[in-house]
Every structure is written in structure tokens, then in C-alpha cells.
Design goal:
Helices cover 58% and strands 0% of the residues. The chain is mostly helical and 60 residues long. The chain has one domain (7-59). The longest helix has 23 residues, at 37-59.
Length: 60
């Protein structure tokens, strides 16, 4: 290993030159809109009907 590459692995170099950047959270100025409740209920109902139909085919 060359001295330059070995120097990259020393603790002193990490103390002088930290490579991990701090995490910065950016808050959106406009809050995200949730989809309307009726869409969620429609999708949930459709999935439930499909599962009931699949169970009827498999176990019926």
C-alpha cells in the first residue's frame, strides 16, 4: 500500500476531513394533499371483493 492510500485510512485524516455530510431535512412549503377518502374506500372494496372471489374459487 502506498503512503498516500494508507493516509486515507488514518483516524487523524477523518478528524480533519470528515466525509460524511450532515443530513438536512427540507420541509415542503405546500403540504401534500392526501387522496380523497372515497378513492381509498373504493380500492379497498375492490380488493376485498377480489379476495372473496379467489377464496370462493379455491375453497368453494
Amino acid at each position: 500500500m502506498t503512503p498516500q492510500k494508507a493516509d486515507d485510512w488514518t483516524i487523524e485524516r477523518w478528524r480533519i476531513e470528515p466525509r460524511l455530510a450532515g443530513l438536512e431535512f427540507v420541509e415542503p412549503t405546500v403540504p401534500e394533499q392526501a387522496p380523497p377518502l372515497w378513492k381509498d374506500l373504493t380500492v379497498a372494496s375492490a380488493v376485498a371483493i377480489l379476495l372473496w372471489a379467489a377464496a370462493a374459487v379455491v375453497f368453494g
